[in-house]
């Protein structure tokens, strides 16, 4: 392994470590909560406190790009609202690296006014799209985005999330690649 590769790997691990620390410090809320899946948990990982934070959002973009560096995609996006800041952070991080990556927003339902689009942003038909989420427990939001993107003519290359709460098996069973930057164990959170 070359010195350049070792340095790059160490630098990226430091950014991942920094992001993990910010998640633990800013986003983990202790107390009984009901998750969007309907399940209950003794803590909540409020990743909007990260994806919309001045120091954490740039790290999100870089860490997520590094996570899927070996996947080929032209567009990144997912179901609004959790995916929107993740996709935007990745778009900006890619631009800094000289890579052209567009972002899209997948609405929960088609608009009934204006252009009546379900997918906002550049057209995704015929393009390779990476579906992203801030966190996923059941995979339902990610799979809803996958279905909408496929209906719009996109080729979905996989799903990537910042924190996995257990959706990996569901996404993989649908024949898709799945990666997360962090598991609950990585963040020292009991399941």
UniProtKB/TrEMBL annotation:
Keywords of the record: Glycosyltransferase, Magnesium, Pyrimidine biosynthesis, Transferase
One example of a Gene Ontology biological process annotation: 'de novo' UMP biosynthetic process
EC number of the protein: 2.4.2.10
InterPro entries noted in UniProt: OPRT, Or_phspho_trans_dom, PRTase-like, PRTase_dom
Cofactor(s) in the UniProt record: Mg(2+)
Residues that, per the record, bind 5-phospho-alpha-D-ribose 1-diphosphate: 107-108, 111, 113, 133-141
Listed pathway(s): Pyrimidine metabolism; UMP biosynthesis via de novo pathway; UMP from orotate: step 1/2
Reactions catalysed, as given in the entry: orotidine 5'-phosphate + diphosphate = orotate + 5-phospho-alpha-D-ribose 1-diphosphate
Domain of life: Bacteria
Database matches in Pfam families: Pribosyltran
Residues engaged in binding orotate: 137, 165
Record-annotated Phosphoribosyltransferase domain positions: 52-172
One term of GO molecular function: orotate phosphoribosyltransferase activity
Alphabetized SUPFAM superfamilies for the sequence: PRTase-like
Quaternary data: Homodimer.
Function: Catalyzes the transfer of a ribosyl phosphate group from 5-phosphoribose 1-diphosphate to orotate, leading to the formation of orotidine monophosphate (OMP).
Family matches, as HAMAP family: PyrE
The family this protein is said to belong to: Belongs to the purine/pyrimidine phosphoribosyltransferase family. PyrE subfamily.
Protein name: Orotate phosphoribosyltransferase
Species whose genome carries this gene: Planosporangium flavigriseum
